[in-house]
Design brief:
Layout: H1 9-18, H2 22-28, E1 52-53, E2 59-60, H3 69-82, E3 85-89, H4 95-109, H5 113-116, E4 129-133, E5 147-153, H6 156-162, H7 168-191, H8 199-205, E6 208-216, E7 228-231, E8 237-242, E9 248-256, E10 259-266, E11 274-278, H9 280-285, E12 295-297, E13 305-313, E14 319-320, H10 324-330, E15 338-339, H11 340-348
Parallel strand pairs: 1-10, 2-3
Antiparallel strand pairs: 3-11, 4-5, 5-6, 6-13, 7-12, 8-11, 8-13, 9-10, 9-12, 14-15
Amino acid sequence: MAPSFSDDTDSLFNFVVRDGYGVKGMVDSGLSKVPQQYVQPLEERIDKLKSIPSENPPIDLSKLDGPDHEQVGEEIVRTAETLGFFQVVNHGVPVELLESLKIAAHKFFGQPPEKKAIYLKGVSPSPLVKYGTSFVPDKETALEWKDYISMLYTNDSEALEVWPQECKDVALEYLRTSMKMVKTILKILIEKLGVTVEDEKIDALTGLKMVNMNFYPTCPNPELTVGVGRHSDMGTLTVLLQDEIGGLYVKVEETIDGKQKEEWLEIPPVPGALVINVGDTLQILSNGKYKSAEHRVRTTSEKSRVSIPIFTIPKPTEKIGPLAQLVERDGVALYKEVVFGDYMNNFFGNAHEGKKSLDFAKIN
């Protein structure tokens, strides 16, 4: 039975987090206002009216195979150096598959709570599959309005065996068809750094892959909450499928007359497009030339929303640090070499707080 959401902090936390009902279970119980545990501090709330919509058109990746190859490559590099986010079309992932993914995500989250709760941390039949809510609920002062299922990839047969029945086939196909694009973009970005990197190193930077499905239930007071708080991704490159509702915001920083000015850019959904964003690993590797994008997600009162990211990250044993040729050329290393598993533990051990995760590798 649902707790009284206004009075009892512990019972709400147990209901949503420990018992696996999630935000969806809370909303389905007939919620009319956001519980206090989800009310964000003023500075963390997303004011839609104060954000600016991105007017950057998607990058057409099919042009990489023609006379515009160099121009498209420069465009990818420019956005990786400034915003850390760009949208792509003609990316090689069938549009029908993207539609099937959204349907599969709604199907998974539309199941009864007990069907999803079998994948809760500590009881999930496989360490490769985890269902949960928010980001690090035990560490957060305000919870995030999001439920998710996370599927770690080792190989096809294991994915087909342990990933949830409702979404495993489309999630695996999404991963499979996206990886060629990821490798192409990564090779362009590394090549434009003016360094030589072996194919084995490219493979190592995407040695682990994870497909997540995020579910943002309708929210009675979206102005008080966030779907995901300010953060950058820890990995190399992230591929993201948005649905038509949108709600993704990226931070833009510029210095004007010596003063730092911050704005939030809304990334509007483009039919058939995928969003690509730079992660911390690539910022470290490029010695700060490429910027991992600080981003966040707004909730909506209109209808439930899904998004489906693929995170490509190094294996935990991989050492990451600025490429030696860059350090030699720059004359200084901005980051120290770290074992990625240590970086990952730090990332998942703290609540979202902008790009603070990068401090773990920064040389002060």
